[in-house]
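Write out structure tokens for Arginine--tRNA ligase.
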Amino acid sequence: KLMKEAAKAILKVEEKYQEKEEKIVLEKPKLREQGDWASNVALVLAGVCRQNPLVIAQEIVRYLPQDLGYVKEVKIARPGFINFYLSDDYILSQLGEIARDPQDYGKCDLGQGVKLQIEFVSANPVGPLHIGHGRWAALGDSLARIFQNCGYQVEKEFYINDYGLQVRLFGQSVLARYQELFGLPATFPPNGYKGEYVKEYAQELIEQVGDKFVTQQGEEEELISRAISIALQDIRETLELMGVDFQVWFSERVLHEGGEVDKVIEKLKATGKTYEREGALWLRTTDYGDDKDRVLVKADGEKTYFLTDVAYHENKVERGFQKIINIWGGRSSWSCKKDGGSSGDPGLRP
């Protein structure tokens, strides 16, 4: 209850002072003598209000309800932390609650049915998962269960990057190994995928279709599709071993073939924030705090990954998600600020 009430208050303060880079937190302190929970709210507000954080902390504590039966004591610690100490009776009573109802203990209606999407893992379907993907799988699935137990309507989604140069290179790599397994001369693509698993995928392809792609030419799209399906099955099986499942597997190809990427181009042009330079179409993301403007369409007509990401998040908004959480690896971490600048709904926080 303390966390719920404090979190609501802190979120209101954070919205009011959202230009502050430092975030207000309610967290467990590192040292036991500093309490069960501690907040830096007075320290953050001190910079905004230009007041002594100890004075602000005293004001906050003065307005706290006096009948918080679960709190034994509230202390202020220099330079301005507010430390909460839970009562022993409350802690013992919670042990009894856990024993009586272990499955539902801790559930609440904080989310009030808000529709929330968590996109995570989203590994390129060009090979097995690595340890980093496993980390994001554990984090994303844990967050999903936490939000579900807090009353949110949660949907877990895996974004399939099945369009563009990388999947084409992957398909060509599988084809080369496939041809080699039949004893045929094969040309391996420059910058292709050389892992041993590619041979395993080629063997799986033979088990599915035999020599179809030896005797039939011009079937590259079908071969790429089958290679992606084999890789995705490998990914699914690994995730199943971790106990992680997704309600939605969303294909990037759908965005392109359904015209959603082109529609987003027109919507961005209508904002007046796009311009052409050196034959390419750019988005003026510096207006939203980015370090430089970003290319949407290259001079040769190729659409960038950034543009596709914008279309994808537009699609998420259109599907009615009120909150969106993206868990990205290092390659995509820079996109957070940029997607925020192009989102049709500035209230959504990627």
